[in-house]
């Protein structure tokens, strides 16, 4: 029976809701689900459907509400969400861009607060600063009376296998508060924890208080939430360069550049978005095994298809990529024969191929002749122009069309087409020979893929050979084995020496790699590729790669990833950490689980210069700084040191504002 897209959607949503109800997961059932979402950012494509767009939005809303979950429904980035569906904001600065709820009965919700920039091959990593995230959250709560903020992502992850969308890296939102490996990304995690504590401290006036706001200056403003007994104020400074002093309720407050100060009871600063007192951390990838023994590696050259009669599919046209592969593989071979009659003047022969896939490799008589690729923000069409050598008579042109993920959004995705669109041969000044309507043969996927030679069970189904310096050519499979690192640290492969392809460990794909696609900085967008611990055995772990371009597997390394350095820097005038409920500011250090503080790299109570990356003692320095910190911290997983002169044998320099900077090593 043929079902419409809406019928499929309703069946899917109904099934998911039924599963949740059966498990008692909705809030009225005593479960944790307090809100549900239907559709996602449909407003971005809605105009493409004309009058059908708003009609679909209304239908989706009615369908969802009719399922009677007992909790509210929301639509992300959908300003025209019909009642009772709540329209929400996705973005970086919803405190500035959100138009607000479209009904007074709806709360202001921020459903995707993007913690880093979208990770794309060919781009440098764009981390979002801790201060910027905190400023955006506080502003949304203050300006929009926001009652809900969800971080996208709060926990980074890995796009294993082929799950990443077009041009998206295998590593996904690694700079989130919890990174790709599950490690705490400091100071973001700690600074946001303090922000959350400050908001929670004033939950009563935020939820039940009367809201007011007024200007404190040209780029400064105050937002107040007040009940008869409780009050909280947000003092906002939009100026990115100046630190103005403002007067609020007869009290002067100095505001850091681009910052928000949260005032408990509208008088005491309990949190400043631009002042990071949380612990910093440095993540390190340590080489534990270099896979540089040539005798442990084997290679298998992927066969280049050249016999059209053996092709599974043939046709006198260029078929669309995804309609052939069904997205079960990145690869589709296009094979055609060309009869060449050389001219007397020895003119060059030019192969031209146009494609809407992401990568195109070209082979003539099984010899590699060139490659071209696109980019996430570039034109959809890629063009390969390369001079080729042909033999007299019949020649085989084998073109490998490659997708690097499927598109992740957009209108009429079913109408998008990928793959090769045009192929021609130009011989000198002779007329262009268009090959589109010649007889083409097609092979879906690579031979090694079909044979599953990346698994232990099927690895022996092909003949592997020893590798040598001549082996590093395009479209080659490599395999070796390695031992799992001892301990519980995260594990990753450094593939900087490779080009582009996919990698498997014990038959499990840990994702695509594309280190040859350099970012503007000249560095790969991603070098380390995460291997989950549960993929590994103690020894003899099978590592298999398919390399499209030609890399050097002898330079691959197995690495452990951990937080090796922690640091804290706190001023004596800083507000004490709210989550500790302490009375005095303090430096708090903590290693990741399973590690302890092994050494104090630097410690200074006084006016130390620099920060957690570059540091030195200043003109004021307590002589007991290092010994006090060592006694408090060495051998422990975590420690806290009050920023107080009494702790360091007295005030080393009266009249000077002091701070404590500590850098420690974890192992």
UniProtKB/TrEMBL annotation:
GO molecular function, a single term: beta-galactosidase activity
Enzyme class: hydrolase
InterPro entries in the record: BetaGal_gal-bd, Galactose-bd-like_sf, GH, GHD, Gly_Hdrlase_35_cat, Glyco_hydro_35_CS, Glycoside_Hdrlase_35, Lectin_gal-bd_dom
Name listed for the protein in its UniProt record: Beta-galactosidase
Taxon lineage: Eukaryota, Viridiplantae, Streptophyta, Embryophyta, Tracheophyta
Enzymatic reactions: Hydrolysis of terminal non-reducing beta-D-galactose residues in beta-D-galactosides
Protein localization: Secreted, Extracellular space, Apoplast
Domain of life: Eukaryota
Organism: Aegilops tauschii subsp. strangulata
GO cellular component term of the entry, any: apoplast
Keyword terms of this UniProt record: Apoplast, Glycoprotein, Glycosidase, Hydrolase, Secreted, Signal
Family: Belongs to the glycosyl hydrolase 35 family.
GO biological process per UniProt: carbohydrate metabolic process
